[in-house]
Design goal:
Blueprint lengths: L6 H54 L3 E3 L2 E3 L2 E3 L4 E7 L5 E10 L12 H6 E12 L5 E2 L3 E10 L7 E4 L4 E5 L1 E5 L2 E5 L6 E5 L6
Parallel strand pairs: 2-7
Antiparallel strand pairs: 1-4, 2-3, 4-5, 5-6, 6-8, 9-10, 10-13, 11-12
């Protein structure tokens, strides 16, 4: 004689199925989160390398590295700001100033909307102007552009660590929040360091 499943057996089977389903969902969600974090880290690393390459190319062409200057009525000096002059035709120079600024002061046209990033990161902006006197230390009317977003706002991070007539050292670390976690690129407590030798500097 065939007998059906008892109510207790059905409840036990449903409980086991619920446990397996919950475990599967947790595993899937964990995998998706890990993939999202890995993609964000890869994206940040690519942006960091692109910006570092751009800075290196520009600084290598510098004719003069200024220890301090005034750009658009604001003082500029390491470790958060650097001014270099590039040679131009006719004995003039082109200004390139790089300044770390709070992300919150940058217009929405230059960044994605992210209130957490506005409160916890900085941007690196480049200020440009051509036809400058090569002996100048005060510059006005420079146009600004965002070179790098989501720069770590750690006050101990010296972006432009050393300035001398022969080399410039850059220390870069990015920071972002993804899925409730804070990501650091290259890593917490680490920096992406780059030493650049201006070829045209005396």
């Amino acid at each position: 004689m065939n007998r059906g499943l008892t109510l207790l057996e059905i409840l036990v089977a449903l409980a086991v199925l619920a446990i397996f389903t919950t475990a599967l969902l947790a595993f899937t969600q964990g995998t998706l989160t890990a993939n999202r974090l890995a993609r964000k880290q890869a994206q940040l690393l690519e942006e960091l390398k692109d910006a570092a390459g751009y800075l290196a190319d520009t600084l290598q062409e510098a004719q003069k590295v200024l220890s301090s200057a005034t750009v658009n009525d604001q003082s500029c000096a390491p470790p958060t700001c650097l001014v270099v002059l590039l040679p131009e035709n006719g004995g003039k120079c082109a200004l390139r100033a790089y300044r770390l600024e709070p992300r919150s002061v940058v217009g929405d046209d230059y960044k994605s909307k992210d209130p957490w990033a506005d409160a916890n990161t900085r941007t690196l902006r480049e200020y440009r102007r051509t036809g400058q006197e090569c002996s100048a230390t005060t510059f006005s009317g420079a146009q600004h552009y965002v070179v790098l977003d989501l720069v770590d706002d750690d006050s101990n991070l010296e972006f432009f660590k050393e300035v001398s007539p022969t080399y410039v050292t850059l220390n870069i670390r990015l920071k972002a929040r993804e899925g409730g976690r804070i990501l650091y690129v290259p890593g917490a407590g680490q920096t992406y360091s780059l030493q650049v030798y201006p070829r045209n500097a005396p």
